[in-house]
Amino acid sequence: MIILFDVDGVLIESLAYHAALKQTVAYFSRRLGLGELTLTSADIEVYESQSITVEWESGAMSVATLFVERLKTLADPARDPTLAPDFWTTFDQASAPSVTIPRPDFSALARFIGETTPAGSPAALTALAFFLEQINQLGLSTYPSIMLRLQQLLARCREIDHAPVMQIFQNTLLGHQHYTESYAVPAHFESEPLLKKLDRPYLAPEMSELLLARRAAGEIFPVLYTARPSLAPREVAAPPRGYTPESEIGREMVGLDAVPAMGYGKMDWLGREIGRRGGELVKPSPLHALAAMGAARSGLEVASLQAALAVEQDGALQAPLAACVGETVHVFEDAAGGLRAATAAVEKLNRLGSQLTLVRHGIAHPNSPKRTTLEKVTDMLHENVNEGLAGILKLGV
């Protein structure tokens, strides 16, 4: 039995990520002279219900809508001091007059972007096209600086050197010391790390112990299957800068230190090896689910990434994915994108003769907007991961 666990919203109550996201949007709101406008917890849930689960994306979209709303208040946006040639000067003009605008409907934005983004495509690029069209309707598309700001916010929002919202978010989440050490750049401001301070485990300690015992006995093969940043594959001796141990911190928090973690950093490392962006390879791409399954079965990360690529590019089944033949694959997710990726991955393997059985578990509390979306792509819904695990491990609830 192979078990794929999403982290945030499944194994962990991701209070730190949500707090950092709110603080990041408020930071840019202040720089735009708009006061303390930011997301609510309900807005974040709607983003996640639309499979926009990476805060670098949802944060960039939220900041972009603040920027566009700010432009609407200006008599001559091209001359406004907030449209300086440099991005950070744009958002840091002390002389920019403060204005009051209605709080944007972030939830409506999330629903629109989620519903209009093609399966497997980055939601941020859908948002970029949407905001560029808004600028065009406002008659501002002839101003290169305005178009450039939106490009800078959304086009490469998962790449630290090109993503201002990601920079502020990571500075806030990791704290200034870890931010500087991880990315080898100066911090934007001093801050304390939020991850270990705010996050709380959903996975019960007794369930963690049972998973490890059953894994040691060779009965189950669990893996963390997450878009959280992570270290590079364990077999890589000297990875480049920019890898942060957020997946590994989450793994430690729920007591699954021995379990592989196929996080964003692993997919990004593969992307650098083959000339693609990590954001293209992480879920909702099935490549991520394939790599996670291989790592679960073997503990080998580079080999699992290479095997996933062989399935995706060549339609070839090789170790360690070849060892998954005949397994039942359980995936626990709180967002539809990860479930769709796992579904596509299993379909690819079954076309190669793997004879896998997939069981998709959705995790959402009864009043969550995620439930409506999850119902369409799950085999069963649970209020929490412990309830779902009790069912498949035959414990009783």
In short:
With 397 residues, the protein is α/β, with parallel strands linked by helices. It has helices at 15-31, 41-49, 55-72, 87-90, 106-116, 123-137, 144-154, 164-174, 176-183, 195-198, 205-216, 246-253, 264-274, 278-281, 286-298, 301-314, 336-351, 370-374, 385-392, and strands spanning 2-5, 12-13, 200-201, 221-225, 261-262, 328-333, 357-363, 380-382.
Kindly estimate the percentage of residues that lie in beta strands according to DSSP: 5-15%
Which percent range fits the helix content?
40-55%
Which fold name is given in CATH as the topology of the largest domain? Answer: Rossmann fold
Distance between the termini: 20 Å
- Count of domains: 2
SSE ordering = EEHHHHHHHHHHEHEHEHHHHEHEHEH
Number of strands: 8
How big is the Rg?
21 Å
Q: What would you say the CATH architecture of the largest domain is?
A: 3-Layer(aba) Sandwich
Number of helices: 19
Give start-end ranges of low-pLDDT stretches: none
Q: Which overall shape is indicated by the principal axes computed on the Cα atoms?
A: globular
Taking the sheet with the most strands, its summary is: 6 strands, parallel
CATH class of the largest domain: Alpha Beta
Assign the structural class, choosing from mainly alpha, mainly beta, alpha/beta, alpha+beta, or little secondary structure: alpha/beta
